[in-house]
Specification:
This protein has about 280 residues and is an alpha+beta fold. The chain contains 8 helices and 14 strands. Strands 7, 8, 9, 10, 11, 12, 13 and 14 form an 8-stranded mixed β-sheet that branches. The chain binds pyridoxal-5'-phosphate.
Length: about 280
């Protein structure tokens, strides 16, 4: 059962309700984070809490001790959750604008956490790879993990054949609706630099692992026009890990099937996670 932490207590998620006056509802002001737990242990908790804090500060939300409270509530919540395998959950933490807009600063935020079983992509999506649809739009305030996904959702409306939209302002590929993007071109992995995209926690792990295992990684936005020369592409995210991309718009990537680079990085990421979880009390 999905549980929610709101106003100091856990309850079934359907009993959590934000006041209709909250700026998250009336103006789309809010930030969030999704992390996963395995066997009840949160993975990369500190990396996720740091990013949540940065997102809130960049959005003008005064956090006070909110992030400390969220950290504590996640620990309590994972003990109460009934996710499968002793606690394989998705933990979503939200900080909203609250009721007060003080010239673009939000001094009285609200926060809530939803803990539910994780819904990673299907095995079939890893086996066959996925398709993305390029759009010339830019994700506003790219360093903030905002709750407002309207642009990216609208650009892919009515397209069941694509998993997500891919932001490509001026033909330069930044990221997707909710994932970081990588292309493997001429033996080098390219991904857009920080500042132009969200600092994906998985993005950071994949870059570090790739470099440690001998891949050349360049933080430079790959161009849409260069995808014809890519032998592989993939997206990364907390629930997706490393998910192969085999088509972007009309461009087929490489052989049109997932390749060895994404398979290797997926394995390295999962091994890294196992090592960290095992050494975690
Ligand atoms: C959440 C998200 C990501 C992925 O971040 P992770 O920390 O790896 O889950 C990338 N880009 C955007 C726009 C996102 O919202």
């Amino acid at each position: 059962m999905s549980i929610c932490f709101f106003e100091g207590a856990f309850r079934p998620t359907k009993e959590c309700a934000l006041p209709v006056t909250d700026l998250a509802i009336t103006r789309g002001v809010g930030v969030f984070d999704t992390l996963r737990s395995f066997g009840g242990k949160p993975f990369a908790l500190e990396e996720h809490m740091k990013r949540l804090e940065e997102s809130a500060l960049r959005a003008g939300i005064a956090i006070g001790d909110v992030v400390d409270n969220i950290r504590q509530a996640i620990a309590d919540g994972l003990k109460r959750s009934d996710c499968p395998n002793g606690g394989n959950c998705a933990v979503k933490s939200y900080i909203t604008g609250g009721d007060t807009n003080d010239l673009g600063m939000f001094p009285n935020p609200r926060y809530f956490i939803v803990i539910d079983s994780a819904n990673p992509p299907l095995d079939e999506e890893y086996r066959a790879g996925i398709a993305l649809l390029p759009t010339a739009e830019t994700r506003p305030y790219p360093t903030i993990k905002s709750i407002n996904y309207l642009i990216g959702i609208m650009q892919c409306a009515g397209r069941p054949d694509v998993r997500e939209c891919l932001y490509c302002p001026g033909g330069e590929i930044t990221e997707t609706l909710a994932s970081s993007f990588f292309a493997h071109i001429g033996g080098t992995l390219f991904t857009a630099p920080l500042g132009t995209v969200l600092g994906g926690v998985t993005r950071g792990f994949v870059i570090d692992l790739a470099r440690a295992y001998g891949f050349k990684v360049v933080e430079l936005a790959p161009k849409l026009a260069d995808l014809a020369d890519a032998d592989e592409a993939f997206i990364t995210g907390t629930l997706k890990d490393v998910l192969p991309v085999v088509r972007v718009g009309d461009t087929v990537i490489g052989s049109g099937k997932p390749g060895p680079v994404s398979a290797r990085l997926l394995r390295l990421l999962r091994e890294y996670r196992e090592r960290r979880l095992t050494s975690q009390p």
